[in-house]
Amino acid sequence: MVSLKDIAAITGVSIRTVNRALRNDGYVREDIRKQVLEITQRLGYRPHLAARTLKTGRSSEISAIIGSLDELHMEKMLAFERTLRAAGYSVHILFGPHDASDDLETDRVLRALTDRRPAAAALFPQAHVPVARAVAQFDLLRIPYVVLDAMDESTDNVGIDRQQGVYESVNYLISVGRRNVAYLGYTSDRPGDYVSGRTRLDGYERAMRARGLPQRVFAIEPHVSESDGGRKAIDAFLAAVPRPDAVQVYTDVMAAAFMASLHDHGIRIPEEVAVIGFDNRRVAELCWPRLTTVSQANQEVGVAAADMLLGKMAGRTPPPGWVVAFVPRQARGA
Amino acid sequence: MVSLKDIAAITGVSIRTVNRALRNDGYVREDIRKQVLEITQRLGYRPHLAARTLKTGRSSEISAIIGSLDELHMEKMLAFERTLRAAGYSVHILFGPHDASDDLETDRVLRALTDRRPAAAALFPQAHVPVARAVAQFDLLRIPYVVLDAMDESTDNVGIDRQQGVYESVNYLISVGRRNVAYLGYTSDRPGDYVSGRTRLDGYERAMRARGLPQRVFAIEPHVSESDGGRKAIDAFLAAVPRPDAVQVYTDVMAAAFMASLHDHGIRIPEEVAVIGFDNRRVAELCWPRLTTVSQANQEVGVAAADMLLGKMAGRTPPPGWVVAFVPRQARGA
DNA sequence: TTGTAAGCGTTATCAA
DNA sequence: TTGATAACGCTTACAA
Question: Which residue is nearest to nucleotide D2 (CA to C1')?
Fold first, then answer.
């Protein structure tokens, strides 16, 4: 690999001069600058990042811990990465442990991150690393960090206002004439873990209360998967009196599963019951009928998280519990 | 940050001795080793990776270029990462350009990769980096590499045998009594770009020919999206005489879209027509009725790719055009 | 306008 | 058993 030394030797000047020419730092005779640039080009010189990091003490890498990125988190990540790249940083991804309660694995991941001495760190949703543990580590090592969407206001967190999202979604159902709107989904939040049942339920209750409409909740137990929950909810739905004419479901995945069960029982959608999801996942448009859904502001979250990091790296203190406004973007089908 | 020097100073020995104790390299007096380890522990010493990389000339990072990982590629990535991590490497992810024809962006990504001087490189499906270009660069810099699933036998490629997958899938449909099996999907391969229409069609034709059954192909143009293609195929399907009693579809996404159109026309699944997908995506179990699908050996591909890299790094030459055997794993619903 | 030299934290050679 | 020391490639204070 060609180094500054090589270029200096060929050009017949000192390393420092080559360095000056390459970084536009101070005066360099014009013909020498030209020559250095030409040789650099020809030899395909590239700076040795490790050497630079060692010398300057700071890398230009930002480490993000993720779980298995689904399409939603992927959107966040792409926006996050693009924003930071534009600011001259490169994003390094690490995979969290399989299981959040695996302390050894958690340590391993955090160590892998801190060993790299990144310029900053990000904790993505479902990374399976306890937020408090990670934050303690980052604080200790003075690594600027951001947590994405952790249902946890106590840290520098960027999240989506799901309460408002569900509120507007339920309002939409009411505005098109539905009166017996039910909520189907989880009903508690799990701080640091992305499950936001209580928050969403709040939005539902707020919307129904405002209109004086009767509330009906089909609660899914925390340990039940979204698709299982959606499918099994059919019994409670069938038993309900009066039967809801609309259901606000926790996510698109759960909604699709619920719709499949409705089909099994010959219940017509949306004539007998309207179903609305949450997330605007790809499955929403593959369902039959197409699923109406609420789009989360994933890109905005990614950008906001990146901005928060850039701010913290520049020494600014972010506002506490920063929440990105909910942005409804698409509603399809019925 | 605490360094070897600090530990040496505290312990009252030389850096070299600390280094020896920590790396179990050569003789160290037992009590000193104990003490060094204790202090290391207490101070939370961690080696500076950049310094190590600078000194040794090789990092223990493996860079992978990806596009937006969907659930299938994510499976590959997780297996890939796990395998390499077990071997002591860490995987660094870079995002490819948005558009494969963007030469500037392609250069940028490849430069970002090579600047990091990784121990090896991997090119994931849909990374939007031209395979030939990347491979040329890797060869030039002597970076061991592997390409995943690129429909390109000319490089060190690990892929899935989709021909065989479709062949077995069609055979399955025949075995359950279907005779008018059609193929719906793309019909050409795009080398280096993951589209494998011709390959799959070959599998279909082979299966039908073997039984002497009539073939029917609903071809989707390359520029049409999977969901659009699936939806629009309904016209050709309705016009077909005789009407197929089963359809082997390119992917689950396309199959779900096609099924939605069948529902729109009141055609009963699977009574009138059986639909079978490919990929075993999550959408398969959210469809109604559940979509029978063919599972790709994603984890096996991830592991195989990792193994190929480990082999190349150890100086072994991999067999050309290595293909992971197709592994059918799940078939659901109908 | 240019060059010398120190130093970042490791690894590893060589001598003691 | 141990330690002095050079080197990796870069940045940068200082001198010329």
Answer: B17
Average pLDDT of the residues in A30-35: 93
Does residue B227 sit at the A interface (CB-CB below 8 Å)? yes
- The helix (run of H) or strand (run of E) holding residue A147 is strand A145-148
Please state, in angstroms and rounded to a whole number, the distance separating the CA atoms of residues B229 and A209. 44
CA dihedral B137, B138, B142, B147 (to 10 degrees): -160
Give the rounded percent of residues in chain B with a pLDDT score beyond 70. Answer: 95
State both tokens at A334.
Answer: 């019925």
CA distance A13 to A22: 13
Q: Give the integer Cα–Cα distance in Å for B163 and B203.
A: 4
* Residue A213 beta carbon within 7 A of nucleic strand C: no
Q: Which residue of B has its CA nearest to A226?
A: B286
Reply yes or no on whether the pLDDT at B268 is more than 60: yes
Q: pTM for this one?
A: 0.92
Tell me which residue has tokens 């195929």.
B233
Chain A CB contacts of B283 under 8 Å are 256, 282-283, 286
**3-class DSSP assignment, residue A196:** strand
pLDDT at residue B194 in the model: 77
How sure is the predictor about B334, in pLDDT bands with cuts at 50, 70 and 90? very low
Pairing of strands A246-249, A274-276: parallel
| Contact partners, residue B326, CB within 8 Å, separation at least 6 | B160, B161, B162, B164, B165, B168, B296, B297
Pairing between β-strand B189-190 and β-strand B195-196 as defined by DSSP bridges? antiparallel
Q: B184 forms bridges with which residues in the sheet? A: B218, B249
Predicted confidence (pLDDT) per residue in A281-309, tens digit: 999 999 999 998 888 889 999 999 999 99
Q: Which residue has the higher pLDDT, A204 or A334?
A: A204
Q: Is the CB of B51 under 7 A from strand C?
A: yes
Residue A322: what pLDDT?
64
Distance from CA of B301 to the nearest CA of A (A): 17
DSSP for B177-211 reads T---EEEEE---EETTTTEEHHHHHHHHHHHHHHH
Residue B302: its chain A contacts at CB < 8 A?
none
What tens digit of pLDDT does each residue of B125-159 get?
999 999 999 999 999 888 999 999 887 777 888 88
Give the pair of three-digit tokens for residue B201.
């069609």
| Spatial distance between the Cα atoms of A241 and A180, rounded to a whole number of angstroms | 10
* Contact in structure between B286 and A258 (CB atoms under 8 Å): no
Chain D bases near protein CB atoms (7 A cut-off): 1-5, 7-13
Find residues 134-193 of chain A whose CB sits inside 8 Å of chain B: none
DSSP string, A256-306: HHHHHHHHHTT--TTTT-EEE-SB--THHHHSSSPPB--B--HHHHHHHHH
Per-residue model confidence as pLDDT tens digits over A67-81:
988 899 999 999 999
Q: How far is the CA of B284 from the C1' of D1 (A)?
A: 66
Closest to A97 (Cα-Cα) out of A129, A64, A49: A129
Contact at 8 Å (CB) between B156 and B97?
no
Encode pLDDT of B64-77 as tens digits.
Answer: 999 988 899 999 99
- Smallest CA–CA distance, residue B276 to chain A, in Å, is 15
* Partner-chain contact A59 B50, CB within 8 Å: yes
Residues 6+ apart with CB under 8 A from B260: A286, A287, A288, A289, A290, B230, B231
